[in-house]
Every structure is written in structure tokens, then in C-alpha cells.
Amino acid sequence: MWRRAYLLLVLVRLWFALSPSYLHPDENFQGPEVIAGQIFSYPVRLTWEFTSENPIRSVFPLWPVYGLPMLLLRWLWIGNGNDGEIPPIAVFWTLRVLMFIISFVLEDWAIHELVHSPRHRPVAVLLVASSYVTWVYQTHTFSNSIETLVVAWSLVLIERIVATPQRSSFLASSILGAVAVFGVFNRITFPAFLLIPGLRLIPYFWNRPLHFALLVSSALFTTVVAIGLDTAFYTPHSIGWGDLVFRPVITPLNNLLYNLQPENLATHGLHPWYQHLLFNLPQLIGPAALLLFTQPQLSIRLYSAVSGIFVLSIFQHQEARFLLPTIPLLLSSVRLPKKQSWLRAWVAAWVIFNVAFGILMGIYHQGGIIPGQVFLSKQPDATQAIWWKTYMPPVWLLNGKNEVLTTRDVMGMKGELLLEELEKLATCDTPADRRSNEFLKEKNGTYLMAPLSADWLDPYLQNKGLEGLRFREVWRNRHHLNLDDLDFAEDGVWNTLSRVVGRRGLAAWRVTKSCPGARRR
């Protein structure tokens, strides 16, 4: 019975992987967009993490995770006789399927190995597989999602080292050294999850120094490769040994130094030390939080999660996705209620919680941005695109259109200032603009991409007169919710929900203005 439920949950995970929700800009700008710019001819936009004087993001973990699949996809594309570059949206969905596969294979496999009790293993696997975090976050291209897999398999390797014959532990020690370095270059928070589990290795390596030498040698070799790749990426000229020895780019060190400065963290938002424990964790595991505090199952998994939460809580900037590595560890470390009535109530609460958050985060959360970029990539007249009250759109999905299309993300700019910007960029209204699809023949066009919940625009959308801006809606996607537009203090709870949920969706308006000279011509 549990196997059939598990297979159903795997299909649910695949369905969410193929849904175009957009959880955070980092899922594109800290990974796929960087590598897509290296492999394909797509113009991309590198964020400050890659362009600052002391870059804090490593490209070393990006190549095996995203680069190799992109290279394979390009090889298959060319091998089948196709001309030109692969459409970026095809690469996007390929990476989503890849994230689903490695989540399904590596994460679930790790849980099978880490949970030793045959009685508890099916419960642990089902809890992890039925979590919306697994459905949504683990199928998106986050560095946190990769960190989840690296943490889980580091724990597997630690257990294999201390519990397997000597010959097998030789290989496990070598792999652990490479995996640990990969984890550090992926995210500097990675060692926090191994503080307590790593203590098990001290007596083992004390009695087997050769195994420790293998681990260190593997880690050093991987470190040299990682620094070499980063130095080559960030150095504007061809690198030599002098660059590697005297001017190496060590991104984890830069990242640590950056995050140790409170003024740097303040630019991203400061949170109290209990943010993770009291707010972020319940947001991710819902009803399981109650079981975690009332009847936990002590294990290396739980200790790893506790050490990670403790260290992450020291830093003042705390986002919920930073806790992703703890979720499978915590869900596999809880005991379900024994009393049948309590068990049924808890299971009902668990299902409702994950279905609700799965639909919210996996389908509707900023869900119009990816389809919106695909729409803009097909508009021959699009030369200016203004994105208002949305997340930053990934420009690599424009399929080369960004060579002529300027994308501006104005975030939550005041409405009055938005109109001023549109006034500067809007093209002159012509007879073609008033006929169906005839405007596509124009050489230039300005588009406004904004959520339908932005009711501030309503008075301006109906303008049919000769003066002022004119907005022509040319595209709409209903699977879009802008949770950053919630304003309970000013509008009240009901009015806010009616606006944001009732008017969900993202629209594209072609913006023109009246030009006296153009009318005379």
C-alpha cells in the first residue's frame, strides 16, 4: 500500500516540477543563467554576486549540476540535425526535469540508507515524499536544493565509513572529501550541518590515519580544481600559474567575509535569532513541527538538522529556503501519533497543509513570469519591457530577443514614477496600434508587465482619449500571485485578499502615447 502511495507522490512531484512557478530570482540568477551564458549564445545578466570586486559565488558546483546537462542537450540537438541554438525554454524545462530526477533518486535513496529501522523507513520516505518542500523547492534550481542532497549524502558517507569494512571505507573517505569541498563551494553554510555528525569520524580517523590522509588528499585536489575554475571564470584574461598562486579567486572565503559584515546583511534584511525556529521552520513543515517537539526520534539526521539550524540562526539574515537541507532530516526523525483518532487528525492536517502550500508556491507564486518572458520573446516589435511589482525576470529565456529588447525591473516603484518612466519610453500611437495585431509590424514597442492586482493602474487603463498614455492588453496569465503585494495594514485583511487572490494574474500591456506630429503625418 505504501509503495503505491509513494509512486503517486512521485508523479505529484513531477507535475509540480513542470509547473512554471517562480519562487525566488536566485533559482535562475545564481545558477542556470550563469552557465547558459557560457554554453549558449544567450545574452545574460550577471548579478552583483558575480560582478563585484570580490565575487562570492562559485561556478565550480554549477558546471556538473547545470553545465553537463546543457552540454549534453546541445550535443543531442546538433546531432539530430537541428540548426541554431536550442530555445532557452527547452533548456529551462530540461533542468526542471533534471532536478526532479536527482531529487527522486538521490534524496529518496539517501533517506532509505539513513533510516535503519524497517518499520520506520516507509513512514520517513512517505513524509518526505508528501512534503510540498520536496514537490516545489527540491525541483527548482536552487543552490539550497543542491545543498540538501549534498548534506544527505555526506551523512550517508559518514555512516558508511564508520560501519563498513576497511576496503569500502577507503572509497567512502575519498568521496566524502570531494563531496565536502563541493558542498562548501556550493554554499558556505554546508559545514554547519556536519558539526555533530562529523564528531563520529574523529575516533575512526584517529585509529586509521591512512583513511584520513585519503580524505584530505581528495579534498585538497577538489579545492585546487574549484579555485582554478573560479579564477579562470573571474579573470578577464587567460590565466597562468601566477594567477593561481598569487591572485586566486576563493569564493567561499569572499562569501564568508561578506556575510560577517552586519551592514552587508542589512541590505538583504535583518531578522531576529528566532526567525528560523519560530517562523521559517513551521512554514516549511507545518503540522510536523508539533511532532518534532513532542516526540522526536533521536538520530544522526536530527543532530545534523539541529546543528544546522543553530548555526544558521546566528546570522541575522534568515530566509526559509536556507533551511531546506533540514527538511528531509527532520521529517524522517518524527514519530507519528499512536492513537488512531489523533493519527487521522494529524494526517488530515498534513495533507491539507501540503496541498495548500503546494498549490500556492508550486503553481501560483509569481507563476506568470516565465510564460511572460516566453511571450515577450515572440513579439517582433518589443524593444522595451518594464516589469512592475514582480520578481526580476530571467533574461536568458528571451531567446536572443534581449539583443534588441531592454528589460527594466522597477520592482515596487511608486505609481507616479512608473507613469513618468512609461511616458519617456512609450512609442507614438499610430493607426496600426488601433487594429488587431497590426502593431506587431511596428519596429519599436514598449510593454508593461504587471500583476492584475495592481489596482493603482485601473484609472489609466481605460484611457481612449487623445492625451496621456494608452494601455492595450495583449497577453494575460491567470496563474500568478504576487504575495509581496499584501498590504493588510492599509487595506485590511479581506480587501487585500480580494485584490491579490481575486484579481490574480499577470498581464502585458502595449503602451503608447499621443504624439501630435505623428497624427499629422
Automatic annotation (TrEMBL):
Its EC number is 2.4.1.-. The keyword Glycosyltransferase applies. InterPro entries: GPI_mannosylTrfase. It is found in: Endoplasmic reticulum membrane. GO terms for cellular component: endoplasmic reticulum membrane. Coiled coil: none annotated. Keywords: Endoplasmic reticulum, Glycosyltransferase, GPI-anchor biosynthesis, Membrane, Signal, Transferase, Transmembrane, Transmembrane helix. Pfam families: Glyco_transf_22 (PF03901). GO terms for biological process: GPI anchor biosynthetic process. Pathway: Glycolipid biosynthesis; glycosylphosphatidylinositol-anchor biosynthesis. One of its GO terms (molecular function) is alpha-1,2-mannosyltransferase activity. The chain crosses the membrane at residues 58-77, 89-106, 170-190, 210-229, 345-364. It is an enzyme of class 2 (transferase). It is a multi-pass membrane protein. Residues 1-17 form the signal peptide. It comes from the Eukaryota. Belongs to the glycosyltransferase 22 family. PIGZ subfamily. This is Mannosyltransferase. It comes from Coniochaeta ligniaria NRRL 30616.
